[in-house]
Amino acid sequence: MTQHMPIPDAWQRAKRVLAIRLDNLGDVLVTSPALHAIKQSLPQASLTLLASPVGAQVGRLNPDLDDVIVYQSPQMDPWQQLPQDSAREQRVIASLKERQFDGAIIFTSFRQSSLPQAYLCYLSDIPLRVAASIDGPGSLLTTRHKHPERMMHEVERGLDLVAAIGCGTAERDLVLRVPGEAHAQLQTVLGQLGIEERRPLVVMHPGCTMPARTYPAPMFAAVADLLVERLGAMVVLTGTADEQALVDEVRGSVRPAQRDGVISVAGSLPFPAFCALIEAADLTVTNNTGPMHISAAVKTPVVALFALTNPPEQWGPWQVPHRQLFHEVPCRLCYSKVCPYGHECLRLVTPDMVLAAAQELLNESRTRAQAAQAATLHVIQDGRTPVLDGVQP
């Protein structure tokens, strides 16, 4: 296990700690190992997450968190749709003040400034404030951290930040616990649709908040066609209520001969049941968006159609079998919301390439399952305790 600096006395005395991650669902998930490190390292403290409405959904499924506060920050409003309303910020400051937090740990991704959140904490009278910042924070931060100047996965960046106050963990998986009632609800839905026994079960999520990161809908339809025709898969299309039209377009573009093998549950599943669906699936096919990280958290193999708007090394699926598919382009790492060119980084990833990646991952899963079954059978026949990685339990 990595050695960390000692936890400062002020943090050891902290009884109420606030973690802040104000962007999207996947961002909160890749922060979850760092939240786990805080919880393990400061067991005396309650841990609360301040998150956006969409990020709060995964926060509520994180057993390391004692509470979740929802706040829609104007800093995280890329389409500038949030009305100017300073009363919103006054309300969240009053709420944070009332809770009397002893310390705040502010998580941001590359290109985001931590200083608006730091000022929010300053106005909320939170005495300890730590964040990474390349800008001069003045006294807004009590601990200013600088990440190493090398490519790091976003999970590693979060762990690197909390290590600045001595927090660490050897458990680096994403954290998401699907409640039992969500599994039961999902089984009811699958039974009503008549697909509970059909395999392989592939979840396909064609939506994304950023058009530049979205694989074209006709190509998603072609992938669904191939999955049904070549692999005999049952493809379940997912999406939010706002993505219903996109999902309908994808399913409507599937050839009639394969359309019975493609169903939509867009807008119909509560979020915990949606996570249960991904956990029950054999494979997920999705853009670089929240369901990609949900798949990593529940260990479902994932084909990630990964636009080169962001570094794939920083944002790819974490510690799960996966394939990241993209076409190299000279404009890589553009950070654009809408592609100004021909979207070649995704458009040149053909449906046949996606099918091949899906087939590889499904074959690998089948091989792992057969090996595990054989090992279990061997142990039962021998009557011995199994040995894993050469270590006797």
Q: What does the model show?
A:
- By secondary structure, the protein is α/β, with parallel strands linked by helices.
- It folds into two domains: 9-163, 3-Layer(aba) Sandwich (Rossmann fold), CATH 3.40.50; 182-374, 3-Layer(aba) Sandwich (Rossmann fold), CATH 3.40.50.2000.
- Helix content is 41%, strand content 13%.
- It contains 15 helices and twelve strands.
- The chain has helices at 9-12, 25-41, 53-59, 86-99, 115-123, 154-163, 180-193, 217-231, 244-253, 256-259, 271-280, 290-298, 312-315, 344-347, 351-382; strands at 16-21, 46-51, 67-70, 103-106, 128-132, 143-145, 201-205, 234-237, 262-264, 283-287, 302-305, 322-325.
- It has a six-stranded parallel sheet, with helices on both faces. Strands 9-8-7-10-11-12 form a six-stranded parallel sheet, with helices on both faces.
- Helix 2 crosses helix 12.
- The chain starts with 8 loop residues before the first helix and ends in an 11-residue tail after the last helix.
List keywords for this structure.
six-stranded parallel sheet; single chain; Rossmann fold; disordered C terminus; 2 domains; alpha/beta; 393 residues; 41% helix; 13% strand; globular
What's a concise summary of this model?
The protein is α/β, with parallel strands linked by helices. It contains 15 helices and 12 strands. It folds into 2 domains: 155 residues, Rossmann fold, CATH 3.40.50; 193 residues, Glycogen Phosphorylase B (Rossmann fold, 3-Layer(aba) Sandwich), CATH 3.40.50.
